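Example record

The entry below shows one chain as it appears in the dataset: sequence first, then structure tokens.
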Amino acid sequence: MEGACLEALGPPPATTPSRAWRYKDTVYLSLGSLLLIGGVLGATAMATTRDPFYVLWGAVLCSSTGIVPGLLLLLLGLRARKEEKTLVAFSAWIKTYRRIPLNDLAKNMGKTRFETEQVLAAAVDRRLVEGIVDRTTDEFVVKESIGQQIFVDQCPHCGAAIHRWFLPEDRLICSHCNQPILAYAAASTKSGSS
């Protein structure tokens, strides 16, 4: 009885990812600056005393609790800022393509296919770009173009089999007769998404 009740409820609602990652660099840089300034001021204050014990104790204490963690947080903040700028630029760039093969994407980025898919997954996960990977054609398709696809079955000039999905305004070259084809003119009766 309890299992039937759980099935009637359906799957649990999807949780939206946090946008806190956008502030990660600011948090790291702010905390790092505060710790670094506090550590330097503390070390300076301890160094003004003439007692060597306090000078040594102040240097060890302030560097281990302020200066070193502050520098590490500053480095992490700069790294997070660079990652964020890279992802935002990547997302803006990929939105200009409505449909792009993953191998071409990797070649354009100068990365391996696996590294490219990781960057793409991070951008999609952080909702910088919305779309899906069409595994039948091995292409990334931006969400706005998913419902606009048309299926081109064969070349209207020579009758060669093409069997691919295209966007209506796409132009392609037949690999058999080398004639240009407008996708909307060569579309078969099938329609929809892949």
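Notes for this example: The CA atoms of residues 47 and 56 lie 8 Å apart. The beta strands are 99-101, 131-134, 139-142, 150-154, 161-166, 171-173, 180-182, 187-191.
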